[in-house]
Every structure is written in structure tokens, then in C-alpha cells.
TrEMBL record:
Keyword Transmembrane: yes
Biological source species: Nocardia jiangxiensis
Transmembrane segments: 45-69
Keywords: Membrane, Transmembrane, Transmembrane helix
Stated name of the protein: LPXTG-motif cell wall anchor domain-containing protein
Top-level taxon of the source organism: Bacteria
Keyword Transmembrane in record: yes
Length: 76
């Protein structure tokens, strides 16, 4: 239900004429849309950030697995 409401609000809020939509604030209209993304972090920093994100995802999966899918203990 929430997803449908979000889709409806996004559809309603979108500009009607896509060709005249304004660019995001702070952009200069460069031909390379991902230029800042590619140079925001050095290569080592990008690898470290990716490793932290993947590590967090794995740790979250471990926690969820231990809480919800651990074997039940037999009670006497």
C-alpha cells in the first residue's frame, strides 16, 4: 500500500514536460553526468568505502540469521 502511495506522489510531483525539467542544483550541465562521482573519492578510498558497505551488509545478514533463523533449543 505504501509503495502505491509513493508511486502516485512521485507521478504527481514529476514535471509534465521532461525536456524542460531543470537540472539538479549545483550541476553545470557537464556532458559527463558521473564526473563528480568518479572523482569524489580516490581509488583506495572507493575500495575502502565499498568494503565497509559490503562488510555492513554481511554483518547485518549474520545478525538477522542469528536472531530469526537460529536452531531452537530443546527444553526439558
Amino acid at each position: 500500500m505504501v509503495l502505491f502511495v509513493m508511486i502516485a506522489v512521485g507521478w504527481w510531483a514529476a514535471p509534465t514536460d521532461r525536456a524542460t525539467a531543470l537540472p539538479a542544483p549545483g550541476t553545470t550541465g557537464d556532458t559527463e553526468p558521473y564526473q563528480f562521482t568518479a572523482t569524489a573519492l580516490p581509488t583506495g578510498g572507493l575500495a575502502a568505502a565499498t568494503a565497509l558497505i559490503i562488510g555492513g551488509l554481511i554483518l547485518g545478514a549474520v545478525v538477522v540469521g542469528r536472531i530469526f533463523y537460529s536452531p531452537s533449543r530443546k527444553r526439558r
